[in-house]
Amino acid sequence: MFGKVLVANRGEVALRIMRACKELGVKTVAVYSTEDANTYPVQYADEAVCIGPAQANQSYLVMSSIIAAAKNTGAEAIHPGYGFLAENADFARACADNDLVFIGPSADCIERMGDKSMARETMKACGVPTVPGSDGCIDTAAEAKAFADSVGYPVLIKATAGGGGKGMREVHDPADLESQYQAARNEAGAAFGNDGVYLEKLVLRPRHVEIQVLADDFGNNIALCERDCSVQRRHQKLIEEAPSPALTEDLRRAMGVAAIKAVRAVDYKNAGTIEFLLDERGHFYFMEMNTRVQVEHPVTEQITGTDIIKEQLRIASGEPMSCASRAPFSPFGHAMEFRINAEDPVHGFRPCPGTITKFEAPSGPGVRVESYVRTGSRISPYYDSLVAKLVVYGQDRQEVLQRGRRALDEFVIEGIQTTIPFHRRVLDNAAFCAGDVTTDFIETQMGDVL
């Protein structure tokens, strides 16, 4: 196991990684911008290094500053968390070039699966179901029109790089294709420095179901069951649960087999997630692979008894994962995660940065809160609006729904607007309570908050 790890991130994920390191006896180094100097993760780490001003492109995205911090503090490895440089192949290579272990997959895997068009072709070749789509990037609006005419509307324009819903546009009317094509390219170029896009046939009213995978250097490739992430706005997840209410044992097994095929096809190592769309007929299609740990990993941890961050550390240090002997996994109990963001749901989820004047997290049986804030903490306008993740778990989905209502009612955050009232309303929605949720849930069931 490593002696010292630098955490190249901030906020709740940085603290989550540091806590896992501490339990394994590993020292930690925090990096921080001037904006984050007084945050709890910086205080929690064994050492901390300032890497620049508030703007991410002058601090958390500056590879040379992070590499230098690791070298100067004697860190042996870097954990990128999620966001920022977590899926940057150049950063993974820079770590290797400086004799630092990147806690994640190889640069080649990040590159191959990070290019969504290339990933799609890789999945097709290894027999994983994919949505009908273009062969590679679409370079002109005329090509986009030809493809859309061939498969029929609606279609989905998708950036080949990045994630988080950026560079993604649905097109239902042929008259909108050219403008939406150009808008997707412009957004992708601004967000990722790569304006490449490709087209897919749009699967109407799907569920978003993903399989958590772990793979090590000892031939262990395992699927840690699924998560249902269908409650989302603008392709950003808000509520995740595990297991999915929609999956039968046969479907769970089939999706797990497909996920492992994907892992083996690219010789993947460490933690990752294979994301699928599940249609109304029970057919599933590969959407993309996230080559990192995800925000919603705690729900999988709760239903499998597995600490995914610790397994990442073990795998990256050259050890076998500790949970392989328990595979194949079947979910026990149920878990649900609510992303508590500094946003105003009543006004289109508008960001609401500011100072938290009161923070009281719920507790009790079956309640887990992942956060980095306290009373007096400031939510910065420079970064992601995530304040906390509320995870509730229990013996079945009904208990989790009841526990979620109780925990949300107890959660007090004052000084800023948050998504707590939105989540509370979701738990009173009949369709959600019945498990009948697709990716258009917010538009069709919660339209007054948009």
Question: How does this structure look, described?
Answer:
The structure is a single chain. With about 450 residues, the protein is an alpha+beta fold. It has helices at about 10-25, 40-45, 65-75, 90-95, 105-115, 115-125, 140-150, 175-190, 250-265, 295-305, 310-315, 395-410, 420-425, 430-435, 440-445, and strands at about 5, 25-35, 45-50, 75-80, 100, 155-160, 170, 195-200, 205-215, 220-235, 235-240, 270-280, 285-290, 335-340, 345, 350, 355, 360, 365-370, 380, 385-395, 410-415. The protein is built from 15 helices and 22 strands. The strands form six sheets. The protein has an eight-stranded antiparallel β-sheet, sandwiched between helices. Strands 3-2-1-4-5 form a five-stranded parallel β-sheet. It has a three-stranded antiparallel β-sheet with strand order 7-6-8, with helices on one face. It is globular and about 60 Å long. The N and C termini lie far apart (about 45 Å).
Write the layout of secondary structure elements.
Layout (H helix, E strand, L loop, with lengths): L3 E4 L3 H13 L3 E7 L6 H5 L2 E6 L10 H11 L3 E3 L9 H9 L3 E2 L4 H8 L1 H10 L15 H11 L3 E5 L8 E4 L5 H16 L4 E5 L5 E9 L5 E13 L2 E7 L6 H17 L4 E9 L5 E7 L6 H8 L3 H9 L17 E8 L1 E2 L5 E2 L2 E2 L2 E3 L6 E5 L6 E2 L6 E9 L2 H14 L1 E3 L5 H7 L3 H4 L7 H5 L5
